[in-house]
Amino acid sequence: MASPLDDTDRRILDALTRDGRMSMRTLAETLHISRANAYARVERLQSSGVIRGYRADVDPVLSGLGTSAYVTLNVRQADWRSIREHLQTLPGVEHIALVGGEFDVVLLVRAADNADLRRVVLDQIQGMAGVISTRTLLVFEEPEPRPSQ
Fold first, then answer.
1. Which member of 82, 104, 107, 118 lies 3.0 to 4.6 Å from 71 by CB, making a disulfide possible if both were Cys?
2. Sheet containing strand 93-98, strands side by side
3. Does residue 1 have a pLDDT over 80?
């Protein structure tokens, strides 16, 4: 079991969430801790899996993915693991969640246009073994994410 996070760990996570490219020197100065302490804590947070990685925050529309949809799936429960593995290989599937309720899986799918979205949903997802049904909810507008405070 991972050790609990203390206040300094949480402040490190907050700072790196706001700016994942922050140098260790800046992180240490911002939090008023030594660079050695900052390095050790970040290394521990990475090795324990709390920090899973660093990524660019890419605008989907400006990067050519102008159509987005939430797609819900009903699946045969015995096929969930193989369905998840296949979904993870599909370009445009940005988020996958197994959920409880009237459907089993929720996906966030980004595509170049409606024809591309149609191809992903109707040809690739609905054609998977174990997928019983899908429902597509087209996204009309997404507010820009708020910066972390």
1. 107
2. 93-98, 105-111, 67-75, 131-139
3. no
Which tens digit of pLDDT belongs to each residue from 7-65?
999 999 999 998 999 999 999 999 999 999 999 999 999 999 999 999 888 889 999 99
Residue 53 confidence (pLDDT):
92
Largest CA-CA distance found in the chain, in angstroms, rounded = 55
Mean pLDDT within 92-101: 96
Residues β-bridged to residue 69: 109, 138
Distance CA 109, CA 121 (A): 9
Report which of 106, 108, 103, 109 is spatially closest to residue 74, judged by C-alpha positions: 103
The architecture that CATH gives domain 67-139 is: 2-Layer Sandwich (3.30)
What kind of fold does domain 7-47 have according to CATH? Arc Repressor Mutant, subunit A (1.10.10)
Q: Which residue has the tokens 């170049």?
A: 112
CA distance 5 to 41: 10
